[in-house]
Amino acid sequence: MSRVKIGTCSPEQELAREWYGRLVEPPVRYAFTLENGNLVFTAAQDRAVSIHPTAKPGEFTEELWKYDTAEFFVANAEATRYLEFNLCPNGAWWACVFTGPRVKDDTAPPMPAVKTRGCIRADGTWECRAELPVAYLEALGMPPANCRLAAAAIQNSPDYLYLTTSEDQSGEPDFHRPASWPPAQLL
Predict the structure, then answer these.
(1) Listed residue (95, 91, 90) closest to 63, CA to CA
(2) How far is Cα of residue 154 from the mean position of the Cα atoms in its chain?
(3) Of 20, 26, 81, 146, which one has the fewest beta carbons inside 10 Å?
(4) Per-residue pLDDT of the chain (187 residues; tens, 9 = 90+)
(5) Phi/psi-derived region of residue 22, left when phi > 0, alpha when psi is between -120 and 50, beta in every other case
(6) DSSP string of 126-150?
């Protein structure tokens, strides 16, 4: 089983293949880092992007996944509870805690203030960043030192391409398989 790396500097990794194994050029670059008490997720790609029409930078926005988005998932070590975080290339975001695949956890503590930002350049290339307090992940039972972690992206709306670090890419695209997310590796 591979591991998704979390470092103190940016150990850039790539999502280079979509769900069915086809190469995506250029790949989506992503990194997880620990900075100032936050788990930081960054993603970027040298390719034009289509964003949700109501997505406003730094604001919570429903259904970001219907357009191009970068995503990350954090689960407890047993893969019984997890957090999904969607990040629009312009910095809009959406997040939810689940007790099982797509079963919302109504007992989860409220999401603390998160910091996001994004940049879509004139040539369409993009990069985005989200900071989520480690203390919140620990309160959910998902400390970065002992969790499962997946990076993902949805692209090419409306003819979607699904990219993920999930180890189980069988059947139809489904990012909600926490038992198949690799254990995080602190560097």
Answers:
(1) 95
(2) 10
(3) 20
(4) 566 777 665 568 999 999 999 999 999 999 999 999 999 999 999 999 999 999 999 999 999 999 999 999 999 999 999 999 999 999 999 999 999 999 999 999 999 989 999 999 998 899 999 999 999 999 999 999 999 999 999 999 889 999 999 999 999 999 999 999 999 988 7
(5) beta
(6) EEEEEEEEHHHHHHTT--GGGEEEE
pTM (2 d.p.): 0.95
Q: Look up tokens 């059947």; give the residue.
A: 171
Q: In the structure encoding, which two tokens stand for residue 127, read together? A: 């990069």
Report the alpha-carbon distance of residue 11 to residue 27 in Å, rounded. Answer: 15
Coil, helix or strand at residue 78: coil
Instruction: Report d(CA 114, CA 35) in Å as an integer.
Output: 13
Nearest in space to 98 (alpha carbons), one of 112, 109, 82, 78:
82
For 55, other C-beta atoms within 10 Å of its C-beta total: 21
Q: Is 66 helix (H, G, I), strand (E, B) or coil?
A: helix
CA distance 47 to 59: 23
